[in-house]
Amino acid sequence: MEQMITASPAIQGGHAVIQGTRVPIHVIVSALADGATVLEVAEAYGITDQQVHAALAYAADIIAEERVIALPG
Fold it and tell me: What is the pLDDT of residue 18?
């Protein structure tokens, strides 16, 4: 699924997007978080349900790599 996601400074300011589109991953994830279904998101942005799932997988990978450092106090 990684080949469905791309990032380029020339497209959407370097944000990760669905390859071949200008649809940012964060827009897809936000729409789903707001209650839209996979089908609704796919139709709204002219992408496939597989691309929606690739966006979620990408977001999950990014979060899995995130490190939070708790500061004292």
Answer: 97
